[in-house]
Amino acid sequence: MEFTKGHGAGNDFVILPDPDGALELTPGLVAALCDRRRGIGGDGVLRVVRAAKHPEGAALAGEAEWFMDYWNADGSYAEMCGNGARVFVRYLVAAGLADPAGETLPVATRAGVVRAVVQGETIAVEMRRPRMYDTASAALGGLTLAGTAVDVGNPHLVCSLPAGLDLAALDLTRAPDVDPTVFPAGVNVEFTTPAEPVDGTDGHVLMRVYERGSAETLACGTGACAVGAVVLRDAGQDTGTVTVDVPGGRLTVTVTDDSCWLAGPAVLVATGEIAPTALQP
């Protein structure tokens, strides 16, 4: 089985080319591929399949040729992954499956069609505008932190840390406890703290994230979008640009009247072959 390894600001993925949807991808195989000791290692799997050849992408085949079949590291599905979409587009271009010269490049996902723009080392992807819809809290290591529930095609809980609480000191080795009645399908939980202003932007924060199905990751694209929307709201703005620094690098979020752009690096680091029978789930 062929694979490519890539990452967006440290958020890493195993990319499987499967244009005709012939691979028998299972939760166990996904988890084994993402195992960092016995497999390739990654926060998730991106299967590259033509939209017309995937049951969840067929309805979008008229809008996008390619469907991003994204799986979390534990073998569960996810509706959307912002960094994954940017890495997916990097792969399409590098493999000659898409032309970056056009104005935008559409990609079908479980959350609908997103559009990407390739600008050298940076890839920006346009997603739905984040929707803040509730308040909730996350319990972590004896702390209870208030947060805002945000829908970015997948669920998020953004918790701004109170003054005096060190972001780096948070223990994210286990999932934060959240209210299952608010998040019946689980949730990605982002923790943020203010940072020094960045010229040309409306806000700058540091972020750590615990992703459902993947544990703590070095970056989360949709999480950065959720954080950007909350930062702008707290500043009294509906639109604007926010710099979000994550452990894996820097992402830029621009919220417009009707969408949200996520920009940052997307890198392919290796290609190869792996024997599925050798993997230990």
Automatic annotation (TrEMBL):
On assembly, the entry states: Homodimer.
Which pathway or pathways does this protein act in?
A: Amino-acid biosynthesis; L-lysine biosynthesis via DAP pathway; DL-2,6-diaminopimelate from LL-2,6-diaminopimelate: step 1/1
**One cellular component (GO) term of this entry:** cytosol
Catalytic center at which residues? 81, 220
Q: Family, per the entry?
A: Belongs to the diaminopimelate epimerase family.
Matches recorded under PANTHER family? DIAMINOPIMELATE EPIMERASE (PTHR31689:SF0), DIAMINOPIMELATE EPIMERASE, CHLOROPLASTIC (PTHR31689)
Name of the coding gene:
dapF
Site (Could be important to modulate the pK values of the two catalytic cysteine residues): residue numbering on this chain: 156, 211
Q: What is this protein called?
A: Diaminopimelate epimerase
Q: Which HAMAP family match?
A: DAP_epimerase (MF_00197)
Q: Which domain of life is it from?
A: Bacteria
Alphabetically ordered keywords of this record: Amino-acid biosynthesis, Cytoplasm, Isomerase, Lysine biosynthesis
Q: Which reaction does it catalyse?
A: (2S,6S)-2,6-diaminopimelate = meso-2,6-diaminopimelate
